[in-house]
Write a structure and sequence with these properties.
single chain; alpha/beta; 2,3-Dihydroxybiphenyl 1,2-Dioxygenase, domain 1; 9-stranded mixed beta sheet; 8-stranded mixed beta sheet; 20% helix; globular; Glyas_Fos-R_dOase_dom; GlyoxalaseI/FosfomycinResist; VOC family protein; Glyas_Bleomycin-R_OHBP_Dase
Length: 312
Amino acid sequence: MPDQLITHLRHVDLAVPDLSRQQDFFTNAWGLSAEHSDTGIAFLAAEGSPEQYVVRLREAADKRIDLIAFGAGSPSDVDALAGRLAVAGVTLVTEPGTMTTPGGGYGFRFFDNEGRTIEISAEVAVRRHRRIEAGEHVPVRLSHVVVNSANPEETRAFYEKHLGFRLSDILMHPRMGEMMWFLRINAWHHSLAVARGPHPSLHHASFELRGLDEYLRGTGKLLRAGVEKIWGPGRHLAGNNTFSYFLDPHGNTVEYTTELELVDEDAWHPHLYDFSDPAVSDQWGTANAMDEFVARKSFNDPDRGLFVAPPV
């Protein structure tokens, strides 16, 4: 396994046909703040996060993941990662260099094994952010991103071998075998997870709220606003985090969560959890059952952006 040069998750970038409707959802319903926006593109920040933005939206004919971005410790770490990927035969979309997105920095992009565009950057300017106060039900940060994979074992191996991700836990089913792998790049239980699915796509993007009260207030606000909930509220066993899953206007699943587990890196051993046990999916027993409807929604539409780099 390579050195742990990646430090954290920065943002997830989505392309959608109806930018104004998507932006309205993420700002007025979901609680992000629009900054640095321009014609055909919007950069959305979380009030409690030092990242310049946690979601980027771009107007396009095809719905797709534009890219998933991670931070590195220094420009030399960026160069080291790019060099290792190139030697391993991974396609670099851009060579390491000065970035023109908000906050600048130094970074590069590449295609992962299934064709998703991944960005690694360092020295991005810190955004002026603030402490989220008690009762404020707005996202503090982007917690994690989960992707569907048609070849999840290979995808897991790619991120472990080339990028230094570590396995935290696995979900399995007696009939279907291993189904989801939780991968971490720091002490958070997972920043990325890989789910077995019929095609590569976004499974969900998850946003951390301040605490349990704020998580439930946020969940309730969305329910009162008529946003479609597909699963929750509840508490997972893997990661020990709460969950409420909703659909955005383009059918992407987005999650409110809180209290994601921080693991002791020296003592942690991955668990193999059987999610046919209802307590694995939801320790509280408050969420609706994980059924075929929830699974179908989580499969999402096939990603139209594989091995096609976003224009910006």
